[in-house]
Protein 1
Amino acid sequence: MSDSSEPIPLTAAFDRLFSAVGEVVCGATEAPVFRAPADLLMHMNRLAVTHSLVTHAAARDVHPTDGNRRLLDDLEACAAARGRLHPALVVTPTQQWERDGIAELRRAMSNCGSRALRACPGTLRYRLFQLQHVLEPVQDFNPFLTVDIREVPEPLDIGRLAEALPTIPIVCTQGMWGHLTTLFDLMQRCGNVLLETSWLHVWDVIADAAQRFGAHRVLFGLGPPAHQGAAIAGLAHAPIDEAERRRIAWENLAELMQLPEGGPVIASRPAPPFAKKAPAAGVFWRQFIEGKSLPVDVVDAHGHLGGIATWSLRELDIERQIQCALARMDRLGIDMMIISGAEALFSDACGCPVSVNND
């Protein structure tokens, strides 16, 4: 890839990518992924992601009011973040009892112009539905709430809050295959529950969610650096039309943020800095996103076939799964895939795993 200011030429639907997840600064219990907004922007630039919501770890781990202030100060001090990183302010039930707690939240929302709020019930030790009396006083801002599904020990709390505040969208983030039954059930029950994609890696799950509930209820999320842009690839190759892809990529989040018509716009698009050091990587990424076979031997080292009740799969017949897998491998230029059968993973219930493997 040439060293230019042009972004990776993705599909037309990807002229912008707006991630619904992002966090900066060192937390209390883990090493930081991004120490500062500039580090998050570097990750975004590497994969040509134009925009992201962002939260300060101190707001999640210590206290929302102080952490939210720090986030706004850090974003103000980072010129490159303007127009690209959008605050997701953390909220907690205790704000309703603090002196000027709600007033401070309203000032922060007004000053930063963001409608995004984030709940951290597991870390800050509360039940999600207890946010009702904090969210009600800011409803005139037309907010939406994001919550990491892993932070919610009782998922019915999401439904309880969604039903109590039907005009406030609740975006469930970082869900994996083990959460799909719960997430799909919540989306079926509550029209204001939405799904974010960063950790989803079940076969055709994006298309499945869009077909079941509408693409307007699915939001793109980038995921951590270790994922190497897998969420982008998942969206690029999802069997949906380009209008749906565009909705998920950035339009849905831009609408929730009520950004100017036409969606989020920045003066210059990010160029992936890895192009300077490893041009082949840029070429491979571009070809993969555009659906072209790679000119190298590719081995997919981890996959499963068969049916497991906790996965949301439309096709359970293993012979049909094999044919679909081979067709996709041919299209992407994957030479070999290492798989294990679902039944072999649960040998106590299904008999000897060796015999299942032989099947």
Protein 2
Amino acid sequence: MVSRAELLQAVRRVAPALISQESAPPVFRSVFFDGARVTAFDDEIALSSKIDFDGFQGGLDGKLLIGWLSTCTADDVHLEKQSKSSVKLTCGRSKLFLSTLGLGEAVYKRPDDDNPEDVWLGAATNVVEAARLVIPCMGSDMAHPTRVGVTVSIDNDGIATVAATNNVTMAVASVQTDVVAPYSHFEFVMWPRFASMLESMSRMDGVRNITIGVDCGWLLAEFESGDELFGKTGLEVDIGTFVGMAESLDADLKFGIPVGDRFAEVVERVAKIAQLSQSKNQTAALKITSHGVQFSVNTGLAALADSVACRHTHSECSIVVNTAMLKNVMAQVTELAVSEHVVGLRGPAHSVWVSAASGAV
């Protein structure tokens, strides 16, 4: 017997790693119980959460299980084996018969904890926070290695450079980690889904450890709740490209325009007006004047002109920017610079570049 609420919560936590299409192989539509955890794997990421379902070991259709548990009202769920390949679930007066898969049919096998070749990042709080800053610029263009996911490079001193670009925006963050030699000086890529799940899960659940399977190309994040996130990692990394692009972009930028809450509020308002545009490009004009920063947008349905007064020594110039992109990268930035090709923003640990609406980074 197991609590219906606890079982439903655990299965829902791993549901993002289920493939729901009926045409998908059953193994990717199933949640697998091993007596201590429930796990789902869609051949890209795996999610695992702690639960003991009456000692049951095997796979059940995740979508059907969640749907049934959501409609039940009784407190407890009982599981009874009907045969080698079927079970009966009972919750109050409601019953559900499901086919089962053997635990050995599960594709995902949790990596071995004892492999000395793997790299242990510890709590990795700084790496997760750095990834959070660059994820708004993350791309998914498989044809270009630098435009896929989040690239991480850790040098011999344990300093991690974390970078991402979608070819319209780019962000690079630099943070200190606890990784020391001989495990330092290595690089990897978080694929987009792993990076997005890591960012969203870590908002509510602290990351206890991240392990990197250097030879096998995988990442395993363990959370304070006991939940786990597994993902494959890219092995083709070119952090030098990011560093080179950053230096090239900064060569034309003179930072020093202060960015605060007032600036973020104006960007938010401008972005909302730009959303009314019938064009795919939600743009606004950004102008640096001797008195501060001016924004203007006209969609035909609505228009807005707003400004932020500030002291600076930046030269006067104008640029057209994608307001949605600019809004997405505003987190923790403190200063601004503008050239005819790009808007640059800086924070204590990272830099972001947003290209002119007609160009690309």
Protein 3
Amino acid sequence: MASVSETSRFNYGVKPSMLVMCSSDARPKYLSDIAMVLATPAGARFRFRYQTDYLSSDVLERIGENSLVGTTALVCFIGNRGQQDKEFLIPVRLAKVCAVEKIGKTAYVFSLQASDYPDLEQWPRNREELTKTGSSYLRKMISNCRNKYHDVNLGGDGLFETNPIRGAKGWDEVAERLLYLPTFKNSYLLHLELVDRNGFPMQIKTDSSGWLEFDPRKSYRVRVWFYGNNIDFEKRARTIKLETNGEVLSSISDQKYIVQSRYDRVDFWFTPKMSDQAKRTLLRLVSSPSDPSDIADIYTEVELRCLVTRPLGPRMALAFLMGFSATAVAVPGIFGDVMPMEWRFLCACIGALGAAIGTALR
């Protein structure tokens, strides 16, 4: 069994001010949260909710000082929660704290932007050694928190310094470790990427509230990588489904995929709809277990907040068309009898036609 001092050489954590946020196997919802965080595209936001009692005193102090925004967060899975001497920790995802909101008197909502994955290359690839290593990290984290466990803490000081890994490679390292655990043994873990119609990663833009911006003149893809242990596809049919409302975002491919392999990828195509104003909607990617009663087959839902913008280019073109049309209509009146009748008639027709087209496009 590796000691805490030995595991420290793996250099886990980022800075003394890193926020550690834990979700456990105590409830199915908490497990789904881990699957969701693992799957969320880099640049998109997700939310975690905690009761005040789950936050350490130094975290509450930082919230009071309004100094948590911009802090790096490390989301961790806690296994065997509530079983003394058997609990362990596995780092899952790095993120940035974007906002912290107090709900009533007893709860906080953290808005986080998903970024890279922690480097688990040096972590064991078998269940026994993996949980031993995770136990060592958990004990050290608790020691850094004055020997008290809190789901949200700043106990990563000197412990969780990690080199972030982007994309599918980092996700694969984390997913592989989680699937060694009985908790996830029948699950499919997902990794989502937003790509353009040519298959290149989308340059994610967001507004001030974290809504993902989409241009209605383009089409997009949600690329889903999946990985699982299941090989009995006939008895354990699992589906991955893209859900849109059809009014703001429209699907232009099959919306449901039936999993028939341990690992692969599938693309779901969608396009935003043009509108006379910016519109907001939710895009959901749902991975449903074949047997809802199987607690080791985790339900996964990733919710993306989407903002369909009204592009400036078409608006400028429309404004130019309307202005040109108004000018064409006014020209005969300005020049009067000086302008030949046929030219006055032509200008009036062009102006009227341009105005009609502009009105139809508004």
Protein 4
Amino acid sequence: MYSVFSTYLLYNLILFICPLLCYFGKKNKVFVYLAYFVIAIVSAFRYDIGADYETYAEGIDQIAQWLNNDYSLLDIVAVYEKEPGILLLTAFFAWSEYPYLWFIGVISIFNTVLLYKVLSYYRIHTWGLLIYVLTFTMFQGWDWVRQSVALHVFLFSLRYIESRNLRYYICCILFSTLFHYSSLCLFPLYFVYCIKISKRLLLFFSVGIFFFAVSGGFNNVYRLLELVMVLYSEGYDGSDHIYAGANTYQTPTYIFTMLWYISLLALYPQKENNQMLLFYFLGVILYAMAGGNLLLVRIAYYFSSVQIVLFPFILHEYKIKSIQNTLIILILIGQFAVFNRVYIGGNFRGCTPYETIFSKNCIDKQFRYRDY
């Protein structure tokens, strides 16, 4: 297991070296491939990273045992409540003593390939990869393993919204539901493309809801939200996730994240009907309403992750005035502080300390203590 200091060092090296490799890759694409290779290896070779890692390991081990005991896939489907993609992928590695390592490794490589495809399509490797790591999108995917697949497929499918290819978009979203049913909420986005809303109006609503949340306004309406969120997944019914959001609107993580989101909305100089801006706005609003409620945060995760594409557009597609350059530098410095102090320092999503599959804990199938 890495020490906390070495974990800080590792994550900061990834943050700076991978985008730098992509920058050098403008002349030699080998450097770009090397950057994504680093992301894939660090992701695939992780062990016991993520708050839900032990749960995934135990669940996948159980599926493998059923398969090795001659249970049919139909028998397992009858008792297994998760998405079918987990079951089908586990079936390929049921022979292994550590099927969950293969499972997480394959998903990590698959996600990295999709990320490469997305950033290649928009030609934003350097800044896109920086935002992917800096905003903790990568690390959150290490915890939300199933949803990370759905997220990367969604980011890949954005091209089909732009090209108005409904058939391919539906195929992508249907595939993503094999790993997380929450992606069903993404179907209507194809038809949101033509909606025209002023950026000033989006910004006004975002700031208003942020102040309403911080002032405690959502605490008074949370019971109504619970009725909706329980319908999202009966599996959360009765758990503390339903009530978690009511007490987190004043936490540093929430406030700093909202300030980052609103700053990007304010800086983005795109036209009124731009899909990226509208999708991102949906993420900002949902996150602002959710606080720490896991159910709404998971839905917001899809939309807010569009920032991977949105931020590079701010830098590359439009002429930025000097005052905007200053603001961009300030929010990057602020986000870097959050990255180290709040995310890594606060063990966000169980990311600290980093550990690899070559550790003794992995060989012995020992997991760190989790207080939940």
